[in-house]
Amino acid sequence: MAVLYISVAVTCLSFFGRQTDAVLTLNLPKGSTFVMVVKLLLCLQVLMSVPIQLLPAFKILESRWCDPSSSSTSSGYVRKEDEDDNTNNNNNNRRAALTTNSGTTGTGGCCQMLGSKTFWKVNLLRSVVVLIAIGVSISVPFFGLFLNLVGAFSNSAASFILPPFFHLKIFGEASSRFTRVKNVSIVVFGVLASAASCIATIQAIIQAFQHEHEQPS
To answer: Taking a C-beta distance cutoff of 8 angstroms, is the pair 111, 101 a contact?
Structure first.
């Protein structure tokens, strides 16, 4: 993953220099059939990857809003015994629903298993979350730069910081000295790279707002 990120960044910077846009496809020549195919493939990639990225958020929200079997105390604390009982009951209910609907196919079986009301609540909730994400991306000025700022935290953490950190926490002294040194080095590199990317992106955001403010209205 690091090799892919670095190779793409170096290639774009070598071609476009300081004119490299946050959205790399904007630097490609307009009117080219190859560029249109690349943009179409990127659109398909977004359509296929966004549901996967939003699925954890969907599941958390649905468990609170759409699952009638989910219960918790007013303080948000659930006893381990109650949690185990609820899990067993939910599993038994799902098995019974699947057995009852084993002969049905398509959305009808899904509606019968979830219940019509719950089915539409789930779809409404997911649609609202997607619309909120679209509204934020349209309304936020210089969204690409703010997206870079988010990526400076999340991508660096997911690629460089968290994997070796978790490896250190899980294996600890069981791993060799070389492995521990390697993991610590990767974490340090990830922290430094994240900090450098954050600083550069914040400077770019400030310059973009200043440039917009200096332009005559």
So the answer is: no
pLDDT of residue 76: 42
Neighbours of 78 (CB within 10 A): 14
**Domain ranges, ordered by start, for the chain:** 1-45, 140-217
Q: How confident is the model at residue 186 (pLDDT cuts 50, 70, 90)?
A: very high
Per residue in 39-70, is it b (16+ CB within 10 Å) or e — as a string? Answer: eeeeeeeeeeeeeeeeeeebeebbeeebeeee
Give Cβ neighbours of residue 155 (< 8 Å, ≥ 6 apart): 5
CA distance 17 to 109: 55
Measured at the alpha carbon of residue 166, what is the angle toward residues 161 and 170, in degrees to the nearest 5?
Answer: 160
C-alpha 2/C-alpha 7 separation (Å) is 8
Indicate the SS3 state at residue 79.
Answer: coil
Tokens of 90: 């939910």
pTM of the model: 0.57
